[in-house]
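Forwarding these from the shared drive since the link keeps breaking.
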Amino acid sequence: MDYSMNFGETFVSLPKYMLEKDNIDAVADILLDGGVICYPTDTVWGIGCDATNVEAIQKVNQLKRRPSGKGYVLLVDSIAMLKRYVVELHPRIETLLEYHSRPLTIIYPKAKNLPDEVCGKDGSVAIRVAQCAFCKTLIKTINAPIVSTSANLANKPFPKTFGEISSEIIEKVDYVAKERRWDKTNGQPSTIAFVNDKGILEFIRE
């Protein structure tokens, strides 16, 4: 069913799902129980779980047909939360995170308080401070980082919109977010960077 809204003299018909909202507490309970969700991020639609739950991470691997032993990008809600999961936050990185306007994923050389399953083989971890309100609220509610991997099977193109997500993924996750399903803007992956041994910022993907 469509719902009509009057903007001055113009009537705009809105699909019902644009008016539906996610129950953040209910979604948080799914994550805390080890569930896997499909959700919109500040970049592309993703598959996520509680990044501290090993069993949930293994579910994501199986769903994506992704080999274990590869690290994941994690989302945190703030720089304060970020500091709980990296051994050292370089001052240049902290300043960059405070002022960078685009989604920015940083690879940190040493993780802490995280399972090996989300880290690289060398102990590094890729983390992004989420910019979208939906992700930040969900992360804050579970008080833990969330895995953020694109909502596609391994070696398949990432979905630029909700409509491009395969039915196999939609059917196998425990929850599909209602947030921004209607958005037709093509999502793009984040910028990725790291600090080298000389303290110089290097970009892997801009």
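-- next protein --
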Amino acid sequence: MATHNDVVTHYRMVPEDFVKHLVSTLVIVAVVVLAASLLFGVPEKTPLTIKTYATQHPVAFEQMALRALDGQGQIANYGPPYNHGTGSIQTPLQSLQGVLHPINAATDFIIHPLTMAASLNPRVRPALTSWTHASAAQRAHWALAYTKALSTGTYKNGVVVTPGGSYGPLPVMLSTTLQLGKSGLMSGALMRSGVVYERFNTQNYLLFLQGAPLQKDPATQTLAGNHWGIIHPAIAGYPGAWWMTIPTWIYQWPFVVNSKAPDALALAIGFLFWLALAFIPWIPGLNRLPRYLGVHKLIWKNFYHNHPPGAPPHTGETKGEKGESLDAS
């Protein structure tokens, strides 16, 4: 009779249908998750959309559109991976990777949607023609003048009203852009592409509101970075993303937050933490922590109680139908 010293062999093996087990487990988990979401689910905060921003902040919307058109917006001058700007370059590695997702903010964010709108609004086409055929100096003159005008602009009767001046085609172009935004058509225009597989590419839609809209909105709810906002609740009375405490903590370190490359530093520090965890089995001292902490003794407490050190191993056996040895259950 064979003697078995391994605790695993003390149990009788039985047939198991793993497909049935997998499906039943999936169904049980799905039911539990759905029930828990109904009972304890956190309500969604109303998202900031192009339509919402255009409706609630029409003057600011036109200002944002003008910055995209004249190359002064955040994405227009962002840099790699979107274009060759320098506004948001943090490290040489960012420049080294080059432009992977090319964006021309003026064309992609403003001209392209207005070109689509021109088929419905005859006033838009002459304005587009005037803008595209004007010299760079003339465009800059119009943009500077209208930027100053919008700083004192008001919204009346569905349009942005500014003092009179030499603005060229900009009032028509930007008022049409505002109407596209308020109607919700701007979102579809930004995602529209002649290439079939790119019609689900939401890049331009997501980047259009980059800058003032997405930077000011969190601050109104104490969700900005200097408030440790990522771990705050977006809906009062519900927990925030507490598991992001460590990354948020790293961003509060003075040499990180005051650096020209805070994201790169935070990612690098996080990677070092990951390396430390990954190589714990080989780091002297740290690899002895499990033995010092003794957590395994707590987990295996019942086993050690029933099998004290020095006790003879269990050797009970039964005979199968063909005479093979099976461990007793």
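The chain has 17 helices and four strands. The CA atoms of residues 162 and 280 lie 64 Å apart.

- D.
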